[in-house]
Amino acid sequence: MSKTILIVDDSASLRAVVGLALRGVGYQVLEAMDGKDALSKLTGQKVHLIICDVNMPNMDGIAFVKEAKQKAAYKFTPILMLTTESGEAKKREGQAAGARAWMVKPFKPEQLLNAVQKLIMP
């Protein structure tokens, strides 16, 4: 059974690049354009990993992570922040909210896939 990953980013091109890399190795991919959109897609189905940007309109990544972690079904879902933000303060804020990993854009697809494999335990 393939694992499902939710990509949350306001950039359609970034969602496409990440989605292509993930689908290429057999993951199911859901996409959302911001935190609000992502929350509306978390309807109780199993999501094995969330890849989320930090800076987005409507609801940013940190606020989204806090909200997602309030949902019982997603309390333990690993979240990888994929962002241009590299500051320590932002990273700490992300970790405090519940993010498990942090990757700075631009990134190489193989870097991303390695991180995904580590976060999604078989």
From TrEMBL:
SUPFAM superfamilies in the record: CheY-like (SSF52172)
Keyword Phosphoprotein belongs to the record: yes
Sorted UniProt keywords: Phosphoprotein
A Pfam family: Response_reg
Residue ranges constituting the Response regulatory domain according to the UniProt record: 4-120
4-aspartylphosphate: modified positions: D53
One GO term of the biological process aspect: phosphorelay signal transduction system
SMART domains in the record: REC
Descriptive protein name: Response regulator
Organism of provenance: Noviherbaspirillum galbum
